[in-house]
Design goal:
- By secondary structure, this protein is mostly helical.
- It is built from 3 helices and 2 strands; from the N terminus they run E-E-H-H-H.
- Helix 2 runs antiparallel to helix 3.
- The longest helix has 37 residues.
């Protein structure tokens, strides 16, 4: 193992044997609050708590906006149906969006241990709405 650790920079270790390389020292544990009681919640949340909250908010924001996006396809589809004219809509673009949403759902499913989660469901839903739009465009061009 080769270790490079100048005093002013984090330790960087390279290993050609087994096991992952590590970078820098581990963070020290959170300090005990001024009350002296370890079970008392500190005034400032620990980094892990902030990150956990951030990830929960991000997940729900992703789910919310992408679920709303599924509804946003409806005006376009409805406009094509009412007008009977799909010439203003690019079939190539809609097929690309269909493929992008479908492959993203599949990619997320595979990288999540072949389990569906909110992201997989939302991307599958968006792929379905793109498929509906493609079908309406094709129907009105025939």
């Amino acid at each position: 193992m080769i270790s490079i650790s100048p005093a002013s920079t984090p330790r960087l270790a390279f290993s050609s044997r087994r096991g992952p390389a590590t970078t820098g020292p581990q963070r020290p544990p959170a300090p005990i609050p001024p009350s002296g009681r370890a079970d008392h919640a500190p005034d400032i949340p620990a980094d892990g708590d902030v990150r956990s909250l951030y990830l929960k908010v991000l997940t729900w924001a992703f789910t919310l906006f992408n679920s709303v996006r599924m509804l946003a396809y409806l005006p376009t589809t409805w406009a094509i149906v009412v007008s009977g004219d799909s010439s203003q809509h690019s079939l190539w673009t809609w097929c690309t969006w269909l493929g992008a949403n479908l492959t993203m759902a599949a990619w997320l499913y595979e990288h999540n241990g072949r389990r569906a989660n909110k992201a997989v469901t939302v991307n599958a839903g968006n792929a379905t709405m793109c498929l509906v739009t493609v079908a309406v465009i094709v129907f009105h061009r025939l």
